[in-house]
Amino acid sequence: MESAIVKAGKFELVIFDLDGTLADTSQLIFDSFNFIMRKYKSLELTPKEIMHYFGPPEEIAIKNILGSDDFDNVWRDYLDFYENHLSQTHLFSGIVELTTELRRAGTRLAIFTGKGSNTTELTLKYHGLMEIFDIIVTGSVVTNHKPNPEGVELALSRLGIESSRAVVVGDSLSDYKAASSAGTHFVAALYDGLAKNRFDNIDCVKVSSVEELSAVLLDGSVQNDIR
User: Which are the catalytic amino acids?
Assistant: First the structure.
């Protein structure tokens, strides 16, 4: 891939992950899972155990843990708890300004998240971001979940943008693998504490704050190859 393309206006599309990239939602996800675990199975899972089920959207993860019996009630309880505790979440500082500046520069914006459509919509509406993205691809609408590139390729196809003109921003190795398989550029967002050591052996651009991410996407301050 071409080197040092990170200059203002060079990217036609930025595809963001949601959890851990746009918003700090991890604790609410863990709490929501454990709320239904306690209610329906009388147990609690550690964050590591819950993250083991990440990849597919929450509704599939919950079925994998609890089975499909009484799922409608389980899912309703999960969504009610999640929605009622969204005040525990926050956008990472600078995200609103960054997305606004990208749109002002003419850059198209997308989301590809493993979250289901319900919780994605709840999260984005709560934080006032629902209308800023050109396309939102959730784990509920793809057949093959991360690290499969289906969601990235869907965004590219729907918006008519070549992979070489797009960049994926995410905090997990599944984001990196999806971007690599789709042929887009990639930036690792390391400002969520859960992501700190995930990319130690990965050769890619890494940012430790939204300010640094803004420098990459808007100013071209980072001159590393983006892979």
Answer: 17
